[in-house]
Write a structure and sequence with these properties.
- The longest helix has 11 residues.
- The protein has a 5-stranded antiparallel sheet with strand order 25-26-32-31-27.
- By secondary structure, the protein is mostly beta strands.
Length: 621
């Protein structure tokens, strides 16, 4: 029964705590197709080659370094069209005084835009900072091309720099430069004078002194990225000390967070600091009160989660980060060769997802210490009903467990998990929450501030679409119209893979002895394994909405069930409801094909009728 308790725990776990849900999408690039293509067309159809840092101008246009192509490209906010705005694709130094499209740059590690629309570029290996003005003409604004640290209080174009990296521009037009190789931060004022801001030109790694004192007397290790908030405070991403440090408007330096891995920071109008943790494949947020929040990403390296909550997205070396005035967050997903957007979910909009791929996830988007031992689960592929004008919603099916994500206030004010009543039924009204499907109430398993998990009524069979509405305290707090299909299978997972460093993570696929399948506990060749699934549709005998299965007869799906393991059809021993679990959960026992190759990540799918589930993986020895 331990395994059943695990599955039931997955069924009821994972309510999100973040007050604002964000939806993940890709706005530029073709994942995994590093190339240079697509200019003058939609950015979503373009090809990029390892996008690095990015910035956004006052009109919301996005500029980013296409590092593998050695170019700077622009996504126009009004049209979504991509174009190259600087560089020839050949590294070098040339072009000052002429069109930016004919200029040559070295490696580029920083971008910033001012209020007038000028674009500043850290031409890092040329030890210069250059500017592309609104007419498209490039010029040098700081640095001589000779590495050194001289020139403070004189003309910036006569000052020396060493590998300038991050840039930031404040409301007064001051340009801040992370002088990486000199372990300092310097500023070019509107008059063109170079001013020292922070650091004493002693680079290194470790914890450096200076907090509580003036910033120009503090030691920085390797300042890389910069950001300025609306009050004029300067934030420094110091790679050398693995920290973010703050220089306030009085010039006093302090550390705001330490022991992080980030190469980009951005600050919203509320003073929240966002940073891309490239080692852990996540985006984190630090509140003005100093509380770290897990904001986006599930710690799994990959490319998945578009159309779903940001907490469940997969990234592959997230690097650059920028915010626009509407609160959208943009990420350069470096090794996926794309630009991703995290967009606030409107209060009236919800995302409907297969519960097997979502209810099994751990807490995402909640307030957490930056402790990466916290269990983060992932979707098995793309289980979300996407939102947006060009999206194609995924269907739901009768009896399917679905998770509905929305803005704060969607469900109950705290995380509430339902229990069956004395007759073994999960009720349709729970914690002041009601979920209806074409007006038919569905049993509710979880109600939380921005997430509700419910079961699609079997009465929906035969419908082609359903209006899904969440009602909290008598008020509709979110709704969506989605297709209805005869089946919509999804396999319950912890992280969609047995490939993990923890004995307690991995897919809740059970080996023949009833233990959980992991890379440390793989299934034997030709043995039986057990999968748990939802979305199988109608059953025989007919299942009852919200009823806990007790036997002696267990409902089986009316549609045929096929299980593919590493592309080979497995023998399905049984497929039926589960003792002690709610109707809508199916247990499938299959025999591993003898020809399956031993691996830590053997792909598995379940097909019910004509619909195939997202892929999960198991370990086989």
């Amino acid at each position: 029964m331990k395994s059943l308790a695990l599955i039931f725990g997955l069924l009821l776990a994972g309510a999100l705590a973040s007050a604002q849900q964000f939806v993940t999408s890709t706005i530029a690039g073709t994942p995994g197709a590093a190339a240079y293509a697509g200019d003058a067309g939609p950015a979503i159809n373009a090809q990029l080659n390892h996008p690095l840092c990015l910035t956004i101008d006052a009109q919301g246009n996005i500029y980013f370094v296409d590092s593998g192509n050695n170019l700077i490209r622009k996504i126009t906010a009004a049209t979504g069209v991509i174009n190259t705005v600087a560089g020839t694709g050949t590294q070098g130094f040339a072009g000052d005084g002429g069109p930016a499209l004919q200029a040559q740059f070295g490696s580029i590690d920083g971008l910033a835009a001012d209020a007038q629309g000028n674009l500043y570029i850290s031409d890092t290996t040329n030890s210069r900072v250059r500017m592309v003005n609104t007419s498209g003409i490039v010029s040098t604004v700081a640095g001589t091309g000779i590495q050194g640290g001289t020139g403070n209080f004189g003309p910036a174009v006569q000052a020396e720099l060493v590998y300038p990296a991050g840039l930031a521009v404040d409301a007064k037009g001051d340009l801040y430069i992370a002088d990486f190789g000199n372990a300092t931060v310097r500023m070019v004022n509107p008059a063109g004078t170079m001013i020292p801001i922070a650091g004493v030109d002693v680079p290194g790694y470790g914890v450096f002194p200076g907090d509580g004192g003036v910033s120009y007397g503090a030691t920085l290790g390797a300042p890389y990225a910069l950001a300025v908030d609306s009050s004029g405070n300067l934030y420094i991403d110091d790679l050398g000390s693995s920290s973010i440090r703050k220089v306030d408007t009085s010039g006093i330096i302090s550390t705001v967070i330490a022991q992080i891995s980030t190469a980009a920071i951005a600050i919203d109008s509320g003073g929240n600091i966002y940073f891309a943790d490239y080692r852990n494949e996540v985006i984190d947020k630090l509140t003005p009160g100093g509380v770290p929040v897990a904001f986006a990403g599930n710690q799994v390296q990959g490319y998945a989660g578009n159309g779903g909550p940001a907490s469940y997205a997969e990234f592959n070396l997230p690097f650059g980060i920028a915010l626009d005035s509407s609160g959208n967050v943009y990420i350069s997903d470096y090794d996926n060769d794309v630009i991703r957007a995290l967009t606030p979910l409107p209060a009236s909009t919800v995302i409907v997802a297969n519960g097997a791929s979502n209810v099994g996830f751990g807490p995402g988007g909640g307030v957490l210490p930056l402790d990466r031992t916290v269990i983060r689960r992932r979707p098995s592929a793309q289980p979300f009903v996407p939102v947006g004008a060009n999206s194609s919603p995924l269907p739901i099916s009768p009896g399917e467990i679905v998770t509905i994500f929305g803005a704060d206030g969607l469900g109950f004010s705290a995380n509430a998990q339902a229990q069956p009543d004395s007759s073994g039924l999960i009720e349709t009204q729970f914690a002041n929450t009601l979920v209806t499907f074409n007006g038919i109430p569905g049993p509710i398993l979880v109600s939380a501030p921005n997430q509700v998990t419910a079961i699609v009524p079997y009465e929906l069979a035969g419908a082609t679409q359903a209006n899904v509405a969440v009602i909290n305290n008598g008020q509709t707090t979110g709704s969506a119209t989605v297709p209805v299909a005869a089946s919509a299978p999804g396999i319950f997972t912890l992280n969609s893979s047995a490939y993990t460093t923890s004995t307690f993570l991995g897919s809740p696929v059970l080996n023949a002895d009833g233990t959980v399948n992991t890379i440390y506990n793989p299934a034997a060749e030709s043995s039986n394994i057990t999968l748990y699934e939802t979305g199988e549709g109608l059953t025989s005998p007919a299942s009852v909405d919200g009823l806990i299965a007790t036997g002696p007869t267990f409902a089986a799906p009316q549609l045929p069930v096929t299980v593919m393991i590493n592309g080979i059809a497995a023998t399905v021993v049984s497929a039926a409801a589960v003792q002690g679990l709610v109707a809508g959960v199916m247990k499938i026992v299959v025999t591993l094909p003898s020809s399956v190759t031993t691996s830590k990540a053997v792909p598995v799918t379940v097909q019910v009728g004509t619909v195939v589930s997202p892929t999960v993986t198991i370990a086989v020895k």
